[in-house]
Amino acid sequence: METRLANIWRLTVNEKKFIETALQSDLRIDGRRPFDFRNISIKFSREEGSAEVQLGQTHVMAFVTAQLTQPYKDRPNEGTLSMFTEFSPMADPSFEPGRPSEAAVELGRVIDRGLRESRAVDTESLCVLSGKSVWAVRVDLHILDNGGNLVDAANIAALAALLTFRRPECSLGGEDGQQVIVHPPEVREPLPLIIHHLPIAVTFAFFSNESTVVVDPTHYEEAVMGGRMTATLNANNDICAIQKAGGEGVLQSVIMQCLRIAGQKAYDITTKIKNAVESYNTERALRKIKRHPSSVALDISGAGVNIGKNQNKPVPQKGDSERSNLTSEKSVADQSMDIEGEAKSSEQQQTNKIDGDAKNFIGGPSSWNNNAK
């Protein structure tokens, strides 16, 4: 592969021998044990369906989009799921812009096979109108930094982005009931994808000695390795896919050992992804609550409208009825006198204003002369 050749050219003979000698002693140049993963960091943006994963020095970003298209003729009731990868020259000098390289095509196929063959995403729920309109979900993977083991990092990014993606809700209308109506998020809440399980990709690197196997190889270890195998499993230890990308042969006992290790790693990574998505959903719900102001409770049981403050008003007793009646009559009389005084003052102000405007108005009706030329 082009990436591996570029890494070989960067390494010297002494560096290769140093890595191989250290691996024979169960030591790795970054201080990890043979079956330890690097630190995984999962971040989400404010936009739904976007995830950024950092696995050591490997940095991958995933975006999920969807659009309505016609289904395939052999599957009229199922939507589609497709993977697209982009290797930026910023991530590795061996990556060239333009047409996808063999490494990019292989990366997309490995992740797509793990998701599609295991039926992780419910594609039947993406059907809007049988045989005419379905949702086509597209996952774009952008490699930002190549620090080794792109398959595992890109797989985690794709799963995290799919878990946070929400598509618009659709309904059928029109005269014949065959017109698809897409509702905006302000009208109806978008719907998340139905994902049954999370297929996790775990990559193993084999070296000249068959007994030397490591998990999550770095770009330096990929330059020295003699073969590679990617096992895709879920948290229930169900094997979704296995990819052996050429290289040296591996014994059956070694493959079984790798599958047992991959099952444990898949469970740990699944837990990390679910925790990150749960925290994102909580933050999203809080942002949604803040956008909607809290409503004020109104008491409309009486003649007027009272806002919450008069709810604890004490109930008058029978002995106070006469005094309350006198007080109410007096208050009504005072209010009527105040209203009459305000009306008179307002009328006087309006009269003064009109007189002033008439004096200040030049060419008004009093100065018009019909006989003037």
From TrEMBL:
Residues 300-373 are annotated as: Disordered. Residues 324-334 have a biased composition (Polar residues). Pfam families: RNase_PH (PF01138), RNase_PH_C (PF03725). Residues 36-168, 197-263 form the Exoribonuclease phosphorolytic domain. Its main location: cytoplasm. Belongs to the RNase PH family. This is Protein ECERIFERUM 7. It comes from Quercus rubra.
